[in-house]
Amino acid sequence: MTETETMIQHASSSRQQSGDAMTATSTVEDVFDDTYREKEGPKPPRRLVWRNIILMSLLHIGALYGLILIPTASLLTVAWSVVCFLISALGVTAGAHRLWSHRSYKASFPLRTFLALANSMAFQNDIYEWARDHRVHHKYSETDADPHNAMRGFFFAHIGWLLVRKHPDVIEKGRKLDLSDLKADTVVMLQRRYYKLSVVVLCFLVPMLVPWYLWGESLVVGYFLPGLLRYTLVLNATWLVNSAAHMWGNRPYDKTINPRENPFVSFSAVGEGFHNYHHTFPFDYATSEFGCRLNLTTAFIDTMCFLGLASDCKKVSREVILARMQRTGDGSNKSG
């Protein structure tokens, strides 16, 4: 019997069933805590963060202008925008999410450096903060301690959580997490130290200046297309994992939890829409049982393994998946 199967047999039978990850194949801190109870009484008042509201509004207006500029852009600039989108997305999915939040595989120093730079291009908080909030999301999913609790509605889970002050429970639980693995990673802490500078250079200047310098694109098109529009699309693709993938889709692995299998989100977020699977088995490096299908991030990690830049990918056996589907799934589809 494999190590994973042994841990699955001794997993918690809580409503979230995240105990299947357990300590040996998980960060520990991303396993659902069914002992948490929301405080009784009225909820704390929502405090708007007007700076974020204004900046997000301006960003989306700029992205709309970028859409208008597409017909005036060269094909090379459009292609460069796609490249920047993919690099940014991988910095979140293969980097902050699968590597640093869940430790689902190991990456060499060169790969970790690339993913940290790509993460700065994505501009979604530094790796340390992103991974901390994501572990809190898994540990206290769909409760007051979840940073983007989908029980508060689509808008809140998608973008609203960034426009208001965090619930006190989110802050409290985040402070109690063991983040020693992140603190021990020199790449993570170096990115955190120089995060603002890296964002200015990688999220805005590089996307804008490369097409201007190499093939004479205007700075305006460079700023609004591979810059603001690309950045906004990556943001919303990531946010759809928190919102749409927690609301719409089937639940073949665990019908007792909200996260769903959502093909559209899988496509837009380069593989992160197999969300019922991911919350059931958060330690699996592929976040899906279907390999590279609609999962560019898994294909990227597999390629890095082939090149010797990544290793020790954690994966759930098909026998464990089938057993879990029969035990807690909604019967909506067959295993791959």
TrEMBL record:
GO molecular function: iron ion binding; palmitoyl-CoA 9-desaturase activity; stearoyl-CoA 9-desaturase activity
UniProt main location, coarse: endoplasmic reticulum
Domain of life: Eukaryota
Annotated stretches, region: Disordered: 1-23
Stated family: Belongs to the fatty acid desaturase type 1 family.
EC number(s) from the headed UniProt entry: 1.14.19.1
PROSITE patterns in alphabetical order: FATTY_ACID_DESATUR_1
Any one GO CC term of the record: endoplasmic reticulum membrane
Presence of the UniProt keyword Transit peptide in the record: no
Fatty acid desaturase domain segment(s): 80-282
Subcellular location: Endoplasmic reticulum membrane
Cofactor: Fe(2+)
Catalytic reaction list: octadecanoyl-CoA + 2 Fe(II)-[cytochrome b5] + O2 + 2 H(+) = (9Z)-octadecenoyl-CoA + 2 Fe(III)-[cytochrome b5] + 2 H2O
Protein name per Swiss-Prot or TrEMBL: stearoyl-CoA 9-desaturase
Domain comment in the entry: The histidine box domains are involved in binding the catalytic metal ions.
Topology within the bilayer: Multi-pass membrane protein
Keywords per UniProt: Endoplasmic reticulum, Fatty acid biosynthesis, Fatty acid metabolism, Iron, Lipid biosynthesis, Lipid metabolism, Membrane, Metal-binding, Oxidoreductase, Transmembrane, Transmembrane helix
Transmembrane regions listed in the UniProt entry: 48-70, 76-96, 194-214, 220-241
One BP annotation, GO: unsaturated fatty acid biosynthetic process
